[in-house]
Amino acid sequence: MDNLIDIKGVTHAYKTKAGPFPVLRDLNISIPQHSFCAVVGPSGCGKSTLTRLIAGLMFPDQGEVWLHGELVKSPRKTVGMAFQNPVLLEWRTILQNVILPLEIVAPMMPKAQKEARARELLAMVGLEGFEGKRPSELSGGMRQRASLCRALVHKPDIIILDEPFGALDAFTREDLWQTMHQLRANEPFTALLITHDLRESVYLGDQVVVLSGRPATTQYVMSVDIPGPRPLEMLYEPDTVERLAVLRREIQIAQGRAVA
Ligand SMILES: Nc1ncnc2c1ncn2[C@@H]1O[C@H](COP(=O)(O)OP(=O)(O)OP(=O)(O)O)[C@@H](O)[C@H]1O
């Protein structure tokens, strides 16, 4: 299968007053089309930096980021993003918030078509009937569902999820994990998820990439070859428990708290 994303030997340092601050070192990640890659690693190792490089908001000092066979050299409109804080615009309704990327990427698309596309996604995530509400009228979980719709509405090449479930309670989080599987089953997409939650990484990921401590390099890659939509019960099966133990150990090694 062709890779949608190829991160090849990426090394990057922030320029600070005190000199270069190395964040990524010879990082390699490949994500096939329509697959879901979860990235875990110690706090501050460079995960968000990686997302900025993929979105073309920054460029690496060395190495290359390829998206759909094209070298990333400028900000990409074809990337959808969702963050821990959904950042919905309060002066717009939920429907208008979800439509926003279409206004930028497909300004000539008829309004009715934009609305139909947004409504279709909102229905998929269980937000039918809430299209006319303002963000503040929705719960945190509902806002995050709307934010996922906004990230997907323009059928982006890739959706980057930077800890979108981190601030939710455990039950809502599990609901949203299932919603992610449902969304993928309805309409395949390619995703890169940054998370601190190992269970989330195994439940959602087709591969889990463990980054080392800063400067981050690819320390370990686990393939999770289980077709979706996956039942939540999967999390309690011996195979998953074993996977979690392996990942936990790799994170401890990354943090310097265990020896390889
Ligand atoms: N613009 C910047 N200038 C200088 N240093 C930066 C800049 N942005 C991030 N950093 C530093 O780079 C390192 C990596 O930051 P990044 O946000 O990519 O890490 P992260 O793995 O996403 O962190 P966390 O897991 O805590 O969210 C951190 O030490 C951070 O302080």
TrEMBL record:
Domain ABC transporter: 5-238
Coiled-coil ranges (or none): none
Keyword ATP-binding: yes
Gene Ontology MF term list: ATP binding; ATP hydrolysis activity
InterPro entries referenced in this protein's UniProt entry, alphabetically: AAA+_ATPase (IPR003593), ABC_transporter-like_ATP-bd (IPR003439), ABC_transporter-like_CS (IPR017871), ABC_transporter_ATP-bind (IPR050166), P-loop_NTPase (IPR027417)
Key words of the record: ATP-binding, Nucleotide-binding, Transport
KW Nucleotide-binding (keyword) present: yes
Family from the record: Belongs to the ABC transporter superfamily.
PANTHER family: ALIPHATIC SULFONATES IMPORT ATP-BINDING PROTEIN SSUB, TAURINE IMPORT ATP-BINDING PROTEIN-RELATED
Name of this chain's protein: Nitrate/sulfonate/bicarbonate ABC transporter ATP-binding protein
